[in-house]
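Re: [ENG-882] Designed sequences occasionally contain unexpected residues at chain ends

Forwarding the minimal case from QA. Structure tokens:
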């Protein structure tokens, strides 16, 4: 399984970015895929994730109403549209897959595969 993120960069507060995660070598039928982030000196946290079978999407409280996760099955790609960005959104954003699907798909403890990450920096 390979997860390759792109789309990070430097943006001013209030701006937008769209992250992409291309997935390959993926044999799973039931899984969750989404985004986590880790700011300097902080623990890695769940941002948003989707269950493949139900299409249920979860969002972290700090990004609700600003970030939108979407999935293009034909392109094997997951997107994270980030609007109204804040300096506190600055972090490395990781694409991740969980193969045992529960209501804890936003927990780092259950992630099976990680991408290498893409840096998002929001200036004030």
């Amino acid at each position: 399984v390979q997860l390759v993120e792109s789309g990070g960069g430097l943006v001013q507060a209030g701006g937008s970015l769209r992250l992409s995660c291309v997935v390959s070598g993926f044999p799973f039928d039931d899984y969750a895929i989404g985004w986590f982030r880790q700011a300097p000196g902080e623990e890695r946290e769940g941002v948003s994730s989707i269950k493949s079978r139900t299409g249920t999407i979860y969002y972290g409280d700090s990004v609700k109403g600003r970030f939108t996760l979407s999935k293009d099955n034909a392109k094997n790609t997951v997107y994270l549209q980030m609007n109204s960005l804040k300096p506190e959104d600055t972090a490395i954003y990781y694409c991740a897959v969980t193969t045992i699907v529960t209501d804890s798909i936003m927990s780092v403890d259950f992630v099976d595969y990680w991408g290498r990450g893409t840096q998002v920096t929001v200036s004030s």
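QA comment: On inspection the terminal residues look reasonable. The first strand starts at residue 2 and ends at 6. Proposing we downgrade this to a documentation issue.
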